[in-house]
Amino acid sequence: MPSFDVPEGDPFGPHNLPYGVFSRSGSDSGARTVGVRLGDQVLDAGAAARALASPYASLLSRPTLGPLLAAGRTTWSDVRRALTTWVTVPSHRETIAPFLHPLSSVALHLPFEVADYVDFYASENHARNVGRIFRPDATEPLTPNWKHLPIGYHGRSGTVVVSGTDVARPSGQRKSPTDPAPVFGPSVRLDIEAEVGFVVGVPSPMGSPVPLSSFREHVFGLCLLNDWSARDLQSWEYVPLGPFLGKSFATSVSAWITPLDALDEARVSPPERTHPLLPYLDDSAEDPYGYDLRISVAVNGHVVSEPPFSTMYWTAAQQLAHLTVNGASLRTGDLYASGTVSGPAPDQRGSLLELTWNGRDPLALPTGERAFLEDGDEVTLTAWAPGPHGTRVGLGEVRGRVRPAG
Amino acid sequence: MPSFDVPEGDPFGPHNLPYGVFSRSGSDSGARTVGVRLGDQVLDAGAAARALASPYASLLSRPTLGPLLAAGRTTWSDVRRALTTWVTVPSHRETIAPFLHPLSSVALHLPFEVADYVDFYASENHARNVGRIFRPDATEPLTPNWKHLPIGYHGRSGTVVVSGTDVARPSGQRKSPTDPAPVFGPSVRLDIEAEVGFVVGVPSPMGSPVPLSSFREHVFGLCLLNDWSARDLQSWEYVPLGPFLGKSFATSVSAWITPLDALDEARVSPPERTHPLLPYLDDSAEDPYGYDLRISVAVNGHVVSEPPFSTMYWTAAQQLAHLTVNGASLRTGDLYASGTVSGPAPDQRGSLLELTWNGRDPLALPTGERAFLEDGDEVTLTAWAPGPHGTRVGLGEVRGRVRPAG
Asked: Where does Mg(2+) bind (chains A, B) (predicted)?
């Protein structure tokens, strides 16, 4: 599939076409509108649709992906087919060209309003590492429920920010076991969690669980996500009601939402289940919804880990089925994340907590030793997945720099 | 202060004036608009403002309280002053009369779009009861952090529903210690939690904690809240990341938001602090923000408990300061709840878990014995607070009936 200005093999070629929201400083006082990434360019999808008299012009001429997300799978497929035509059929070239802008010339924004944000804990390797670090004397690092349900909790949707947003080091209470009382100050154990986020498009009413088989009808696509974590705040606060201020200061997401339709070649079976599953979670007779995403975690440009998403024990379809099995409704813009992605190998761990074994084994980076993040550090998550005909499908990066505590 | 059609001593007299959103089935195809409660009537506040050429006509002619919430304290006071004049000064009587509708003739709606929902755990009596029930052998029922910070967690804002909404019994996994594996089915330990919710009006930017002294600048008012809880789901899922499906199926709020300005006579000092507080939580030199709210919990019309909100260890001002101390931003429509309100006496406990001591001592109701809720049971929370000159300020009720699992 030839497409103008995209080199052969580019992970953002016309086989990918992720969606975002952008603005150009010079134009229309920087109004936001839907963009589709093509190589190192952004297609103003609404302007292109209007020029081509597409029926999707209105849906794509919005300051958020919300209406597109809500439109449902048939429309998602139709819009994707139209976009593919526009960027690949030579006769459209002249029409489209004025609406392609260099990525470097635009500002990217949070692409949709986050309704509820849920974070899961779906990597067995991660959960085992955390168990071993915090409960070294326990015979079993996993909690008894871990293999029976995808553990999750609600996070703060108001502090989900787009890639490129600086993150201020949070302050709060911490108390080591030897401190007589808690102390207050900037976190001294600031960490990241490399995750994948799933974006709900089509809502569901209260009282109507979404079965495994309906995953694709509700979920539009996915993004990369960095669940910034202040380990010292978290460990003091989290018993008995879970993480709160240790997480709620910021969660970064990629500016690009990759539609599930771009990732069909990347679908894989999840790891073999070691425990029988209750029927609503039993995916043995369903289409598999594991994804072969190869994530890379870099600190100050130096790759420190390559977590394989294919190793996740619980799939996004299982997470959605669990999240709604009690009758909880879904809204357009609901975002749920996988939890830290960690593979079995030491260099596949998705958090500094695990990579440095809670600070015991600092990482040697070109910019110095790191147990946890220092002010000024920049963390970048990138990922790709196998695409059609040997191509790669690139996910949008998540980048964030640590600012000193205010 | 005489006001037409409100009996002397009515807890919803002109000293109260809570806000809600209502519609009338006959009019304008049931359009929603801001209402103010006066006795057993609802004033169409926008229509009254337009008739009186008030500068607040636009703010009050909306289908949600959002714009009013966002307008800030000066406007909140000005609007309240205007409303007080309209409903008390005789010369306005004729103008206002057409815009007063009997409560029984209108539908009440969720009064604002809930942004993030946070639930705290601020009653020492409740926390001690829960500790004693679930950890009977522990020497100290409170977790070590309890007296140092207001423990909280995020809930699901998409399933916050207005009073009067039926609640379907949730299904999910449960496992008693003697079960060899978890089982799936409708919750068999469905409970309530009597709480008070605080509604954020004015947002705050990321990285800017809200100090104790700014509580009134951000929080508009409060409501009653029933945090429905499936104890069996909750106890199996909640380690290590906190409550999830045991809570996320529904949270009911009153249709009326009582402005803080109506509750100045109800302000009291919180209980004496037994542990020193870190400076950001130390309210010893601040105006006290405890509230003397007398809550009543009824099951099928029979009062089972009268929890006193004045006994809460952590105040709403402390909760807001804690919630933002890590730099988390606030949005208009953020809702945070107190956690179960339980007083020291057995008949002041705000949950069936405590009232029946985890089912050991069922309640004898006229409708039969109850350990937990049965299908068809209706739970109603009501409350009042001391008002000016010996009056009572009524809070809007929260009512909800249990529907069988779907």
From this structure: 227, 247, 251
Taking only the tens place, the pLDDT of each residue in A221-231 is 999 999 999 99
Summarised one tens digit per residue, pLDDT across range A295-323 is 999 999 999 999 999 999 999 999 999 99
Give per-residue pLDDT as tens, B131-146: 999 888 889 999 999 9
Is B244–A152 a contact, with Cβ atoms under 8 angstroms apart? yes
Domain boundaries, chain A: 19-109, 117-403
Mean pLDDT of A251-267: 98
Catalytic residue among B109, B126, B218, B322: B126
Q: Regarding beta strands B251-253 and B160-162, do their DSSP bridges make them parallel or antiparallel, or are they unpaired? A: parallel
- Using an 8 Å CB-CB cutoff, list chain B residues near A279: 184
Please check whether residue A233 touches B, CB under 8 A: yes
Tens-digit pLDDT profile for residues A172-230: 999 998 999 999 999 999 999 999 999 999 999 999 999 999 999 999 999 999 999 99
Active site residue A126: yes
CATH architecture of structural domain B19-109: Roll (2.30)
SS3 A343: coil
The catalytic position among A126, A218, A322, A389 is: A126
Q: Which of A323, A281, A313, A258 is nearest to A115 (CA)?
A: A323
- Cβ contact, residue pair B155, A154, below 8 Å: yes
Whether residue B240 and residue A171 make contact (CB cut-off 8 A), yes or no, is no
A385 and A12 Cβ atoms separated by less than 8 Å: no
Q: In the beta sheet, which residues pair with residue A297? A: A305, A381
Q: Which fold has domain A117-403?
A: Fumarylacetoacetate hydrolase; domain 2 (3.90.850)
Which positions in chain B touch A277 (Cβ < 8 Å)? none
